[in-house]
Amino acid sequence: MDAAAQEATSQGAGITVVKGARLIDGLGGNVLRDAVVLLSGKRITRVGSVSEVAIPAGAKVIDAGQCTLMPGLIDGHVHVAAYNVVSFNNYRIAMYEVSPQLQSFYTLFHAQLCFEMGFTTLRDMGRNNAWANFATELCAVRDAINSGIVPGPRLLVSGRIMTTGSHHDMNLPRAAYRHPGYTADGPWGVRTAAREHIRTGVDIIKVCVTGGASADEEGDTRNLTQEELDAAVDEAHGFHKPVAAHCWTALSHRMCVQAGVDTIEHMVFTDDESTRIVRESGTPVSPTLLHRTDRAIEVRQRMGSPLNVLKKMREIQPRCYESFKRMHQAGVKIFMGTDIQYDPEMGSNSAELELYVALGMSSMEAIMSATRSAAQAMGIDADTGTLEPGKFADLIAVDGDPLHDIKILQDRDRIRLVMKEGKPYVDKLAAAPLYVLHPQPGERKMFE
């Protein structure tokens, strides 16, 4: 090899090139045909067409053929610390039978199930058990992934402030003993709880402004006073932490806008006035529709959910769909969130996008809700959410065109490449395929 060839080859050292038939960059513009993405280390250096981008000699080339290249997907509302409750008869028994240590293994496993389906970032909205809030263990799983000890998606984890009798507190039976510090009340109690979670290392503070669909509560109840909510937001923001608010009612939406929460979780009981207030505030909202589907209700029934919980879910399903249409048509900022846990199955997150399209979004809007819009809502858009120079190389290759058929994102076999920060974790394009988890189907079911 002559000197010129050696120099050209050396220029390509450390460069990876990913080629695909088309590219969706997450910005909402035109699809790029015959696309090329250049990356060096963890970050993208150039995006363009084959005719525009010269491929350096010596670069590693990943040819995705007729696949679509797109940003790694982001689910902004998950509960990966859920577990196989059927093994323990029902959910409430499981809260006592499942140790925090076992729950940590479920957390990692479920995060990996989502990861191999193209979700390179998950925002976990917390979990409690019979002993305490599960924040310490969630932070440990996040840190193990970040340290490279185990493969997994980028995790942002939350600590949940539970006031007495609130949504998360009522996951436990009414007569069950609560450990000291399990709940917090009043503005100073809420501030203390926020500080304790921040000390633990959480990325987000979550609050429940209303009830939900647990057995011993109603979704339209107020769980926080305005004073308590203001205190939670002020304390979190004082530590540069965002606040995510579980909200089911129009009143709670108004309270959240007044307090300055960063994201609103769920779309259930809305009206035109609350929708207008949320839109004008610019506060992003996560719909979490997948958790309300017929399939989710079926899964809950199989796991032994109380009949009144199933009844509540059936009743709110049409309200959620109506609220989504209202907010989308009004121009509210929407980012993808599923509320996925044990219902429906982990890894089925992309079915949320199919619902968005069925309810009026374009396929491009739906994809953006799980890429750029989600990254913006979570405050990580400087690093991920789009395929642009300078961003992390969080990239997936999908066999087919999701703009033509959004459902292909739910097909595990069609997710051909999953790359996080420039490193492939799933690569079915290679001669020796790479997987996060064992590739054989039927071995990772939620149910026995």
Q: What is the overall silhouette?
A: globular
Taking the sheet with the most strands, its summary is:
8 strands, mixed
CATH class of the largest domain: Alpha Beta
CATH architecture of the largest domain: Alpha-Beta Barrel
N-to-C SSE string, H for helix and E for strand? HEEEEEEHHEHEHEHEHEHEHHHHHEEE
Contiguous uncertain segments of 5+ residues: 444-448
Can you offer a commentary on this structure?
- The protein has 448 residues and is of the alpha/beta class.
- It folds into two domains: 3-71 and 385-427, Roll (Urease, subunit C, domain 1); 73-378, Metal-dependent hydrolases (TIM Barrel, Alpha-Beta Barrel), CATH 3.20.20.140.
- Helices cover 33% and strands 18% of the residues.
- It is built from 13 helices and 15 strands.
- It has helices at residues 3-12, 91-97, 100-115, 135-146, 186-200, 226-238, 250-259, 272-281, 294-302, 307-330, 351-358, 363-369, 372-378; strands at residues 15-23, 32-40, 43-49, 60-63, 68-71, 73-78, 119-124, 154-161, 204-208, 243-246, 263-265, 285-286, 395-398, 415-420, 423-427.
- The strands form two sheets. Strands 1, 2, 3, 4, 5, 13, 14 and 15 form an eight-stranded mixed sheet that branches. It has a seven-stranded parallel sheet with strand order 6-7-8-9-10-11-12, sandwiched between helices.
- Strand 11, helix 8 and strand 12 (285-286) form a beta-alpha-beta unit.
- Helix 5 (186-200) packs parallel to helix 6 (226-238), helix 6 (226-238) crosses helix 7 (250-259) and helix 7 (250-259) packs parallel to helix 8 (272-281).
- The radius of gyration is 22 Å and the shape is globular.
- The N and C termini lie far apart (60 Å).
- 52% of the residues are buried.
- Residues 444-448 have low confidence and may be disordered.
